[in-house]
Amino acid sequence: MLDVTTISCVAVAFAAGFTAAWMLLGIRIRSACLRPEGARGATTPVRSLDEARRRELESLSREHVLARRIVEERLGRFERMFASFPDPILVLDRHGEVVDANPAARSLAGLESEADPIDAVHPRSLEVMIGDRATVRDLLEHVRAVVAGGADAVRTAEFELESHGSDTEEARTRAFEAMVRTLDDHGRTILVMHDTTRERDSSRLKSEFVAKASHELRTPLSSIHASLEMLADGDLQDQAQRTEFLEIAMEETGRLAKLVNDMLDISGIEAGVARPHMAQVDLAEIATDVVEGLRAAADRRSVDLRLHVQPGLLVEGDAEMLSAVVGNLVGNGLKYVPEGERVTVTVDAEDLTRSVVVTVTDTGLGIPPEDLDRVFDKFYRIKRYERNARGTGLGLNLCRNIVEQVHHGRIGVDSRLGEGARFWFSVPASHPASMAA
Ligand code: ADP
User: Fold this and answer.
1) Are strands 342-350 and 304-309 parallel, antiparallel or unpaired?
2) What percent of the chain has pLDDT over 90?
3) Both 126 and 81 in a single domain?
4) pLDDT exceeds 60 at position 38
5) Which helix (H) or strand (E) holds 180?
6) What average pLDDT does range 235-259 have in this prediction?
7) In terms of Cα–Cα distance, which of 274, 269, 305, 315 is closest to 426?
8) Does any ligand 1 atom lie closer than 6 A to the CB of residue 282?
9) Which tops the pLDDT comparison, 9 or 175?
10) How many helices (H) and strands (E) does the chain have?
11) What's the pLDDT at 2?
């Protein structure tokens, strides 16, 4: 990834190279034209003098053509680089007016049409290009300092700009790190704006993750602490009460361990350090085992847990991870359906995409439309269901990571509020035998 310093160095180097080439060419031609005739040999006969001058002029003309080609080639290369930089680059005159802008800068200003020339004849104010008045004021301060500072002056600045996308896109801010430096000795400066929005967003996400994780860890920790404190005080005479507090501490410790394990699993996959044990695994077998393991829990809540599998559906995958995905989806089905409802697990081959699809459909509460996109986010829990069941909000995010990152599959949910939910995931089938005949 090019940083703002590299981009501005390349741009300045090309501009300097271009100027130097033209200067050399000019000096060469001028010196040839101004050289007095005597200096070329006063004793030469007129005829051979003409001949010598003709040759010299021919040679000069060839050099001129060659030098011109070199300059044009360099200029073309520079223009292509200038045009292809994804970051906005502006050239400013000594008064801070914009006299050149690459397409990224033009697009930032909404001046993408060719009918909007930006050059020394049609300069634009920095405010037209950047929009935000306070930022422009700040940048112009830097431009003035660089012009006053001479050849090696460099200034950097960081700022955010409101970006208005298309009508359907919501307005968002873009972060930039800008560098202003001298371009030539006519007081022109170059302003390179490096888009740091992604870096900013990812560091915000990290901070949010740490904040949410700490918040989630605090709840079970406080319960454990309170329970242990009660036990340590020795005030609890009754054995039944002591057992109750011990059970709370045990349950909360389990919750804490699950939270930490889920977080470790998710970050391991996201960081690319998870080492899955890939093998030919039968998803129908995995689903059957998971369903049988959860049957007792379903019975306790009088949930009708059904299973429809097509046997022998092989995929290349990590059995433990895939089992965790099915377990999470079925477990959620059991948690979020009222007593007496139904959860159905199916495993089928999907011919069109040559994949195996696992579907967990329940007849429970369903998911409000505004939450559909978000239930796979880290720590996301639907507010109105928080009382129905305890959870961490990490289960579905872990499922998504396992399916998409580790198995290159797809995961999704369809639901209507009050009409149950249908969670599904698909993994590429690894063997023709696993496809429907
Ligand atoms: P949790 O530990 O909270 O269950 P998940 O990541 O597994 O975390 O699920 C995120 C949220 O999605 C849940 O808190 C719940 O609000 C919602 N959800 C998941 N499965 C269902 C379902 N079958 N029916 C309704 N809501 C569900």
Assistant:
1) parallel
2) 62
3) yes
4) no
5) strand 172-182
6) 91
7) 315
8) no
9) 175
10) 11, 12
11) 52
Residue 28 sits in the same domain as residue 154: yes
Residues 66 and 185 in one domain: yes
Q: Which domain holds residue 313?
A: 279-434
In short, whether 413's Cβ falls inside 6 Å of ligand 1 is no
Ligand 1 in contact with 395 (CB < 6 A)?
yes
d(CA 359, CA 310): 12
Q: Strands, E, within 185-268: which ranges?
A: 189-195
Question: What is the four-CA torsion angle of 150, 152, 156, 161, rounded to 10 degrees?
Answer: 60
Element containing residue 158 per DSSP (H, E): strand 154-163
Pick the last residue of a domain from 270, 293, 318: 270
Cβ 249 under 6 angstroms from ligand 1 = no
Same-domain check for residues 125 and 77: yes
> How many domains would you assign to the chain?
3
Name the residue with tokens 């359906």.
337
Q: What span, in angstroms and rounded, lies between the C-alpha atoms of 117 and 40?
A: 48
pLDDT level of residue 16 (50, 70, 90 thresholds): low
List pLDDT tens digits, range 364-405.
999 999 999 899 999 999 998 988 888 889 999 999 999 999
Is the C-beta atom of 420 inside 6 A of ligand 1?
no
Query: Domain with 346 in it: what CATH number?
Result: 3.30.565.10
pLDDT given at position 436: 46
Q: Between these two residues, 171 and 319, which has the higher pLDDT value?
A: 319
Q: What integer is the mean pLDDT of 161-174? A: 68
Residue 390 alpha carbon to ligand 1 centre in Å: 10
Nearest to 25 by CA among 75, 71, 59, 77: 71
